[in-house]
Amino acid sequence: MRNGQRVAVVSGVCVAVVSAVGFGAYALIGGDDADKAGTVAATSDELPGETGPEVETGPPTADEVLATAGAFLDAWAGGDAATAAALTDAPDKAEAALTALAADAGIEELTLEAGTPSDGEVPFSVNAAVAYEGERGELAYDSALTVVRDSVSGEAVVAWAPTVLHPDLAEGQSIQTGPVSEVPPVEVLDKNGEVIDGEEYPSLVPILADLQERYGEQAGGSAGAETRIVDGEGETVASLLEIAEPSPGQVPTTIDPAIQRAAEEAVAASSRASVVAIQPSTGAVQAVANNPADGFNGALEGSWAPGSTFKIVSSSLLIDRGLASAGRAHPCPKHFEYGGWRFQNDDEFEIPNGTFADSFARSCNTAFISQAPELGDADLGNQARDAFGLGLDWQVGVTTMDGAVPTQSDAQMAASLIGQGGVRMSPLTMASVSATVKNGGFRQPYLVPAEFDGRQLAQASGGLSGATAQELRSLMNRTAVNGTAAGAMAGLGGDVGAKTGSAEVDGQDKPNAWFTAYRNDLAVAAVVPNSGHGGEFAGPVVADVLRAGS
């Protein structure tokens, strides 16, 4: 009984509707009529002695089941969420769910076809044409609804539940159509155009993820499309239909497979190590490796005091200022006091009557500290930036730490000259320092070629003079041949240069071992934290990578 009139659907008659907006059609096949339901008199708000309007009780009749289910499915198929929801026992929830389905599921055409009712339950099939950004698919499944008697109005209504929309749908969930992934997948290519396999090069796995996030939208791939059930946070619960399979774009890199393989093997020999290899003539990053591979990417993002490897930068400043020259006498006392600190050399060695080349090769701290009184607080930072590009905004193509040489005073400024104080570097930046010396000028390291996405690479405003660059190469060559780096560099032919470093860290038992070197057109730097002297622990890592170069 609805509004005083009985609505009946004749058994076997097909009722269908096609929406004006193209949602589709509904068809209902009826069953046999059942006995009428009983009635009771309403008692709410009645005066004594009065009898209220009769309210239907008991289960809905077969006619009511057919009529209510038919009207609900007709309204849903026609895109009329409000009308469909009004035919349920939870109009607000039903309207919200039906409206969300229409807005989010990408349904262009909808056909609902009911089966034979049984005890108030009406099974029905759903066939939907789903579209997303020009891709189309067909979603088909079976569901069911139950018609019950509303206890207040006495009318037959659909018992609302999320399973009416889809049998796998739960409270707080919805059906959406969208991309399979947030960004399209990418294939990352090495320098030869071959796809990089993360299983073969585990250190590159975090970099591959970074490259997908950065370049997925511009690499020419597609994120695909699917219809899925999502929870209240938008996370996928179940995929219902793959409309279009994701297709990868391609991102080129400068990774050299042979050098990368050598880098992976080199760091594996240490419990913790990071290494980077750069081609000095171009700035191309040819290898990046970390152990552990799935941890922090220290090779590119690390921020450590570089110790005596930074004396390369400090030497360029002293040479440019006329405070040092390779063949000229230079002090290297056991101790030197500056800014209230007493600095000393490792094992308190000294070099009587030595040259600056002697001090560089043996990594004499006091040879550099003794020149602090001749320098301004900002001089070292300016030299690092203008000649070596350190601290500029590098556009490598992935996340990097690009070096920091803050302006400091007194003892901290002096400590910066030997790579302590506030100086912070990564293997990437220290490999770049060696590459700058070998090349004779700064070329910003890059992993993704700049022409791929039009990035502007950083430029050092000053640069190294030819004379200073040549003198630095002679200093590094001597260190590699018969200085603190000689042991690690033994057996490596060609044009070589190196510098060791051991950076003290508060709270560590042992210093961080550093080593940076070049051989022909390959520059490499490594750090092995909390290990010991640079030549002993970081040197072999660098040497193994250098051997892989031509």
List keywords for this structure.
550 residues, single chain, five-stranded mixed β-sheet, alpha+beta, five-stranded antiparallel β-sheet
Helix/sheet category: alpha+beta
Shape type: elongated
Largest sheet: 5 strands, mixed
Helical run tally: 17
The count of β-strands is 19
Average pLDDT score: 91
Low-confidence segments: 1-37, 40-44
Q: Helical residue percent?
A: 25-40%
Q: State Rg.
A: 38 Å
Proportion of residues in extended strands: 15-25%
**Largest sheet: spatial strand order:** 1-4-5-6-7
List the helices and strands and how they pair.
Blueprint: E1 24-27, E2 39-41, E3 54-56, H1 62-77, H2 81-86, H3 91-104, E4 107-114, E5 121-132, E6 135-149, E7 156-158, E8 174-178, E9 186-189, H4 205-215, E10 225-230, E11 236-244, E12 249-252, H5 257-268, E13 273-278, E14 285-291, H6 298-301, H7 311-320, E15 335-338, E16 341-344, H8 356-362, H9 366-369, H10 379-388, H11 410-416, H12 427-439, H13 450-453, H14 466-482, H15 486-489, E17 496-503, E18 512-519, E19 522-528, H16 534-537, H17 539-547
Protein described:
By secondary structure, this protein is an alpha+beta fold. The protein has 17 helices and 19 strands. The protein has helices spanning about 60-75, 80-85, 90-105, 205-215, 255-270, 300, 310-320, 355-360, 365-370, 380-390, 410-415, 425-440, 450-455, 465-480, 485-490, 535, 540-545, and strands spanning about 25, 40, 55, 105-115, 120-130, 135-150, 155-160, 175-180, 185-190, 225-230, 235-245, 250, 275-280, 285-290, 335-340, 340-345, 495-505, 510-520, 520-530. Strands 1-4-5-6-7 form a 5-stranded mixed β-sheet. Strands 14-13-19-18-17 form a 5-stranded antiparallel β-sheet, sandwiched between helices. A 3-stranded antiparallel β-sheet has the order 8-10-11. Strand 17 (about 495-505) and strand 18 (about 510-520) form a beta hairpin. Helix 5 (about 255-270) packs antiparallel against helix 17, helix 7 crosses helix 10 and helix 7 packs across helix 14. The radius of gyration is 38 Å and the shape is elongated. The termini are far apart.
